[in-house]
Amino acid sequence: MARRPADGARAWPQSLAGGATGIALLHIERARTGHGDWNTAHTWLTTAMRGEVSAAVNANLYFGAPALAYITHRAASAASRYLRILERLDTATLTVTRNRLAAAHQRIDRAERPPMEEFDLIQGLSGLGAYHLSRHPDHQVTRDVLSYLVRLTEPLPDPAGLPPWWMNVAPTGSPHTDYPGGHGNFGLSHGIGSALSVLSLALLRDLAVPGLVDAVERICAWTDHWRQVDEIAPWWPGYISMQQATDHHIHSALRPRPSWCYGVTGTARAQQLAGLALRDPARLQAAESAILATLRDPHQLDKLPEIGLCHGMAGLLHATWRMATETGNAEISAELPRLADRLITALDQDDHDPELLDGAAGAALALHTFGTDLAPAPHWDTFLALA
After folding, report:
1. Cα–Cα distances in angstroms (integers) from residue 99 to residues 56, 73, 189, 375, in the given order
2. Is the pTM of this model over 0.85?
3. Burial class (CB in 10 A: 0-12, 13-18, 19+), 52
4. 311 assigned ligand-binding residue
5. Span 20-384: which CATH code?
6. Residue partners of 357: CB distance under 8 A and separation at least 6
7. Which residues of 204-228 are buried (b: 16+ CB within 10 A; e: fewer)?
8. Per-residue model confidence as pLDDT tens digits over 196-252
9. Residue 249, annotated ligand binder?
10. For binding Zn(2+), which residues are annotated in this chain's numbering (predicted)?
11. Domain extents for the chain?
């Protein structure tokens, strides 16, 4: 993966998830921590910026100007040569964010339910907010995004009593006959978990935005209502349908795999951050108990044969490292070496796509962070809403 990237190797170089942008992040992080060289990082960064940079309506943390600003910010924190291009990318990202905010507030004014791409991490304002909170926490646009996320949690007129982040679409983001009433999404990738993480991180950084605490508490009240408890530890659904909301019941067979995107890997970290932000020891304990039980359950671990950050072992390893280092939980820390060995074994068995979100670059980043026990600010894992 340290090779010079070949021309045309990636159809979407500006994609953080699957393009040169994501692979650049790995090499930037290695260079920042003294374990890689800046020439390799620069080569990948240059490849990521080849062609016209997108600042279109679909630009987001994972694609286009915001994605490039994200990785360039991390490079510029250690190499001043990138400051000028970062300023240009920031200008484009600010415009994208303000346009998205205007559309979101218009939707709320109409008392309509949100589309997934309005607020989620990968496409929406939670992702853009995560970037701005990392890049310039005191900027007005950061406050504006946080204020929007607060407003996202404020009740809409709804005779069914559904939360204001309930979506009319299926978990795919499109209408589907299996979800005639839409769905409520808990996940970090496409659900309210991303907003919970970003709002909690803002509280932990002492940002004085009206309504932050109330917003976190409203989200937590909903996740608490749907939290399930088995004989070992709590878990949360990835999403619920209208029928499940009406029945007030989640079958245990619907427990999601322990992935970052929809499973306990992401949900437990979001709950841990909320527990820290609200100074709620019971929430903190529930989150850490949930991840620890998963790490000690071979059946749950076997549900993650993939290597990646989104759907696989790398996401579990890194979120676990974050949770352990955040509070110094020795029991969680003790499980990390075994999980890292499991990931290394999987990497050795087959060839893997080099991409960041589901491939070898993400796995390498998780192993690099575990091995060095370092993740300096600005944190590389902000795009996962883990820090």
Report:
1. 10, 22, 22, 32
2. yes
3. exposed
4. yes
5. 1.50.10.20
6. 16, 17, 18, 22, 308, 309, 310
7. eeebebebbeebbebbbebbeebbe
8. 999 999 999 999 999 999 999 999 999 999 999 987 789 999 999 999 999 999 988
9. no
10. 261, 310-311
11. 20-384
